[in-house]
Structures are given as C-alpha cells and as structure tokens.
Structure prediction request, 161 residues.
Amino acid sequence: MSKREDYLSWDEYFMGIAFLSGMRSKDPSTQVGACIIDEDKKIIGIGYNGFPMGSSDDTMPWEREGDFLETKYPYVVHAELNAILNSIKSLKNSTIYVTHFPCNECAKAIVQSGIKKVVYFSDKHKDLETTKASKKILENANVEISHINLDKEKIVINFRD
Prediction:
C-alpha cells in the first residue's frame, strides 16, 4: 500500500484553518480568518474578526452604514490583530495566512510583531486607500506578500461517515 495522494498541501492546510477560524465570526457581512505559523510550520496564533473579549455580540452594532459610532467599524477587532494578540510565542520571522488582504492598521501590527510573510486569499478591497497603504507598509518593511492560488475548490469536513 502506498501513501494517500489527496492529502492537503501546507498552504491548503493553513489557509483552510484561516477559513475555518473565520467561520467563528458573527459578522453578518464579512467573515475573516487568520492563522500564524512559525518557521517550523507550527500554528502559533489564530483569530477571526469580532468584538473585543467581553463585549456583547447582541448589544454592539453590526451595521455597515450610518453614523460611525452606530456601525461595527470602530469596535471590531480584525482577524489578523486577534491572531497576533492570541499568539502563544514570539512572531519573529513567522507567516500569517489570511482570508482577506490585511488593512493598513493590521499591516502595522503585522510589521511590528515581526511577521515576515503574508499569504492572502482574497484582495477584493485592492482599490481602497487603506489597502494601498497596507501594501506600501508591508513592502517598505520587506514583508513578503504572496497571493495564494489553491488547486482545490473546497475542503469538506464531514463529522459523520
């Protein structure tokens, strides 16, 4: 008997964990996940977008439009920052897998934490000024940026055979 041929690649595995983490988000419009690995391919942080710990998901606003303080934007912690804050060791020379390209605020946290590579799936906000600033921040700090192209269309997790 020989080994299985349809096992996950490292990129599929870590991006899959980022997507799975994003499924924890209660945001009705955008679910973002992040997974940080060290140089030995060990997971050292995961996160998803949501309100700060202890904040009620039922009383905080989820709106995307309206008065700033009545929208989600001033309150939500992004997946990348949550993964950084949830990390279990130094992030020096680590890699972050993210479902969406990081915003400028997350890019600053990525650089400051010592992450050296960003692997992203979606760049749907590439035309926003915050995304352009993010790319400039990452490139200026010599953080490698890699858009992931996955061969698999989906990964199925079946809890029942």
Q: What stands out?
A: The longest strand covers residues 43-48. The chain has a mean pLDDT of 95.
